[in-house]
Design a protein that fits this description.
The protein is of the alpha/beta class. The chain contains eleven helices and seven strands. It has a seven-stranded mixed sheet with strand order 2-1-5-4-3-6-7.
């Protein structure tokens, strides 16, 4: 079912805000003699225990086990790992004390923590998703990352450890790293040969990254807007994001127009430059990707130099980094490049 993940998270955010506000209003009622005077301690003890169990079995365990997942999802899990146990502890304490004043503070704090989990977690996460990123795809990413957070069984962690060095890219103001790239005609050239007087939008990505595919129209619209205003564009095709022999996602291509059947969409990591070129040709053909494109070497020189896996955007001007986008998948936002180009 093609239900946008952003819509689901925003509806969830609205529902949680309503619950949070209701609990805060209810906390006031506990101190009002004409409404209610005695708290339900059994309910508080039950809810408190349940929330503690959910918190520690769920988000706390995931964080403790340490598997790497996309930064925005991890941030939301961290927030839940704090707010859920604190909510449980507040209710448990109020139930044991059996006094209206403690119940007031418990329900008030739980309501506040619910609202904070929305404002700091769910709602900001919803804004990172394009409208054509569906809830099933988000759940597939979470499931494939290892729902318990175990590093040993997490394809996400193994891929992140293999291809990335932390979250940071090349800082703004630094000299843009140089290295060899291969043209689609097989010629080896230096990336610096594309650094000219004009600002250069540098896009790193691959076909097998679903977030990259879903942002392609935004990226091409950005190019069509700026390429006639002395702005250059270049894509460096890097190591695949989701492969059969790496971080595999189930049914990740079914919503793409070019999809036929699963057998036609079984991609592995490229082991030769010809295999990488074949994947780049597939991207160009199936997505009508008319941006200039070169290939990273099989040593993944530029992927490592720019810490650009799975996808990342830069703007280079006068051989210096003037914009460094957040790490993909969810930190990849062509609209933020548009704002950066207005300052060039």
């Amino acid at each position: 079912m093609k239900v946008p993940a952003s819509l689901v998270l925003r509806l969830l955010s609205l529902m949680l805000v309503i619950i949070g506000l209701s609990l805060m209003l209810y906390s006031g009622a506990l101190l009002s003699d004409d409404i209610i005077s005695e708290p339900n301690t059994n309910l508080q003890l039950t809810l408190g225990t349940l929330l503690l169990l959910v918190g520690f079995i769920g988000p706390v365990r995931i964080i403790y086990n340490g598997a790497q997942v996309p930064a925005e999802i991890q941030r939301t899990i961290i927030i839940l790992a704090i707010t859920i146990p604190l909510s449980g502890a507040s209710l448990l304490f109020a139930g044991m004390m059996d006094e209206p004043i403690y119940s007031f503070w418990a329900y008030f704090c739980v309501g506040l923590l619910i609202i904070l989990s929305v404002l700091l977690g769910f709602y900001p996460l919803s804004k990172r998703f394009p409208n054509n990123f569906y809830i099933g795809e988000m759940l597939s990413i979470i499931k494939s990352a290892g729902i318990a957070g175990d590093k040993e069984s997490s394809p996400a962690d193994q891929a992140m450890m293999r291809w990335t060095t932390g979250r940071e890219g090349v800082p703004v103001g630094n000299k843009a790293p140089n290295g060899t790239v291969i043209t689609m005609q097989g010629e080896e050239v230096q990336l610096s040969s594309f650094f000219g007087k004009n600002p250069l939008v540098l896009n790193f990505g691959s076909y097998s990254c679903p977030h990259h595919r879903k942002r392609i129209n935004e990226l091409l619209n950005l190019m069509n807007k700026w390429q006639h205003q002395n702005i250059d564009f270049l894509t460096v095709y890097t190591a695949e994001a989701h492969t059969e022999d790496g971080w595999k996602l189930e049914d990740q291509y079914v919503n793409d127009a070019e999809y036929t059947n699963e057998d036609d969409f079984c991609f592995s990591y490229a082991t030769t430059i010809d295999e990488r070129r074949h994947m780049a040709e597939w991207l160009i053909k199936t997505k009508h990707f008319d941006m200039p494109l070169v290939l990273d070497t099989m040593q993944d020189t530029l992927l490592k130099a720019y810490n650009s896996w799975p996808i990342r955007l830069y703007v280079i001007h006068e051989s210096k980094v003037v914009y460094c986008g957040d790490q993909g998948p969810f930190g990849y936002e062509p609209s933020s490049v548009d704002a950066a180009l207005k300052k060039c």
